[in-house]
UniProtKB/TrEMBL annotation:
[4Fe-4S] cluster binds at C127, C131, C134. This is Probable dual-specificity RNA methyltransferase RlmN. It catalyses: adenosine(37) in tRNA + 2 reduced [2Fe-2S]-[ferredoxin] + 2 S-adenosyl-L-methionine = 2-methyladenosine(37) in tRNA + 5'-deoxyadenosine + L-methionine + 2 oxidized [2Fe-2S]-[ferredoxin] + S-adenosyl-L-homocysteine; adenosine(2503) in 23S rRNA + 2 reduced [2Fe-2S]-[ferredoxin] + 2 S-adenosyl-L-methionine = 2-methyladenosine(2503) in 23S rRNA + 5'-deoxyadenosine + L-methionine + 2 oxidized [2Fe-2S]-[ferredoxin] + S-adenosyl-L-homocysteine. The active site is at E107 (proton acceptor), C351 (s-methylcysteine intermediate). One of its GO terms (molecular function) is 4 iron, 4 sulfur cluster binding. It comes from Parageobacillus thermoglucosidasius (Geobacillus thermoglucosidasius). Belongs to the radical SAM superfamily. RlmN family. CDD domains: Radical_SAM (cd01335). Its cofactor is [4Fe-4S] cluster. S-adenosyl-L-methionine binds at G177, E178, S209, S232, L233, H234, N308.
Amino acid sequence: MEHTSVIKRENQQTKSHLPSIYSLTFEQLKNWIIEQGEKPFRATQIYEWLYQKRVTHFSEMTNLPKALREKLSGHFDITTLKTLVKQTSKDGTMKFLFELHDGYSIETVLMRHNYGNSICVTTQVGCRIGCTFCASTLGGLKRHLEAGEIVAQVVKVQKELDEQNERISSIVVMGIGEPFDNYDELIKFLKIVNHAKGLNIGARHITVSTSGIIPKIYQFADEGMQVNFAISLHAPTTELRTKLMPINKAYPLPKLMDAVRYYIEKTGRRVTFEYGLFGGVNDQLEHAEQLAELIKGLKCHVNLIPVNYVPERNYVRTPREQIFAFERALKKHGINVTIRREQGHDIDAACGQLRAKERKEETR
């Protein structure tokens, strides 16, 4: 079975794979249209077909000249994702395992809140960061996603919501992979989903999270984008963070905090620190005190995350009362803190968990 899956993927990779039209920003598409000798307004028409009418074939773009439709189909694919598994939780959370053109798989999650529908997207097939608590890194990094493959996740899930007359109102880039390890494609994705003629997701309704690739934090600050920014912190000291997150060896905590300060000063925007609570590891009151000392004076918010149990990892959940005690300790120091509401607890909710269970040959 596993051998057959590998052969299948090799065969799929030998097929011609055209660039995804979802990978083109509006300006890139307009420039391509002009190069073809067409009027610039055709770019607006194409974006409407892709992101508002959500067609899957260029032949459906009936207000375009036939010759232009043929050029489009000869140069680009409209990326379609095959749904391998769809899980629905009692709380309405939906988790998808999608197959890509080369046979690899990725996860996407739809979360329902009282303020709207949020989608968590994946940026890589696997991950090389190696966080010791995460199922996404099992098997390492297979490849980066094209911007269009990230966009396609949003379009695919939005088509699910179309049947219920609902829409995606916010995006979090916190799925499988390290977004800043696929930086250029990430930035294109953000521009595409934010564009008024595209999916028109407001920048302030988009959140990007990084485990701490310091040079990219400086670069991201200089982009001038209004999207929300989060750091996966998970430990208040260099020693403990290195045990949990090997990336701390390359990008130590003190230098990470310098980059965070630069981001806040440059953008004037608040940073969210994601802090997963692991029973007996980083969830004691002394850790809360150390965390408060680390981030004091910063324009920030702490999001405490009770961890999902992952069978391939050995971490256990922090007791409920200990979570509240940790929260109180931070609030005592004037830290803005919330506890993430658990969702999808009755399905494979942890990031990378569904892929690890269903696609063992990918995550070995």
